[in-house]
């Protein structure tokens, strides 16, 4: 038996595998280049080279948006998890359980109150990891709860929209959330409270057709896909080739559907300035 090949070499290989885990490097989807994961995280989950904005979880979004130590989660009433007892290749209730295990959240929308540079705000965040951020009864309930929290505390409401539309497994009950959330937003208007929408990648379907496009100010992250139907469906319907960059944040800004495109590193000060301007509250002094 050759101990160098049968004993030493396997131990060296196992040691190298422990020192270089698969999550040490991640690939930039724009350029294909590898980036050190901790560098990307330190850059707010934005690739330093291409400036591609990764999708992030609701917890990560809240941590980089609210002042440290100010976050207070808002309770969202529970709804029936599987109202239609839906099943395709897998039971819907099993998909829900899997998504809850993956994200640690009860559904796709998380709501919290806190401050941004000292200004009180209410924030609702959609998490793409939870069944592609699709909106059903629970998401509708969360957005209504966010409106109620904002009106009771007299704060602006900031919504980070992200998702593939309304959740088909809940049928008409999910579609009803479009009108329900639209009515809730009108309550913000009646209370004269600002409503800011940050459109992240992707924001599509019924989400775009309802609460995501009802803001007083619409902000988008760079490169975010924003639209109702997919580009291929539109091209097949109108039988024309769509322009380059169609449905991307920059294209929509040029055509008046988005007010501004803001990189993630500048999102927090931008939101703070808008909240301070529309609520006439000074920003907290730093330094």
Describe the structure.
This protein has 287 residues and is an alpha/beta fold. It has two domains: 52 residues, no CATH class; 225 residues, 2-enoyl-CoA Hydratase, Chain A, domain 1, CATH 3.90.226.10. Helix content is 40%, strand content 16%. It is built from ten helices and nine strands. The strands form two sheets. Strands 3-4-5-6-7-8-9 form a seven-stranded mixed β-sheet, with helices on both faces. α5 packs parallel to α6. It starts with a helix and ends in an 8-residue tail after the last helix.
- Number of DSSP strands? 9
Overall tally of structural domains: 2
CATH class of the largest domain: Alpha Beta
Query: What portion of residues belong to β-strands?
Result: 15-25%
Write out the CATH superfamily name of the largest domain. 2-enoyl-CoA Hydratase, Chain A, domain 1
| Main beta sheet strand tally, sense and closure | 7 strands, mixed
Helix content: 25-40%
Strand order, sheet with most strands: 3-4-5-6-7-8-9
Give the topology string: H per helix, E per strand: HEEHHEHEEHEHEHEHHEH
Please state the overall shape, judged from the principal axes of the Cα atoms: globular
From the N-terminal CA to the C-terminal CA, the straight-line distance is 67 Å
How many helices does DSSP assign?
10
Average residue pLDDT: 92
Helix/strand/pairing category: alpha/beta
Q: Stretches where pLDDT falls below 50 for ≥5 residues? A: none
Radius of gyration: 22 Å
CATH architecture designation of the largest domain: Alpha-Beta Complex
Q: CATH fold name of the largest domain, please?
A: 2-enoyl-CoA Hydratase, Chain A, domain 1
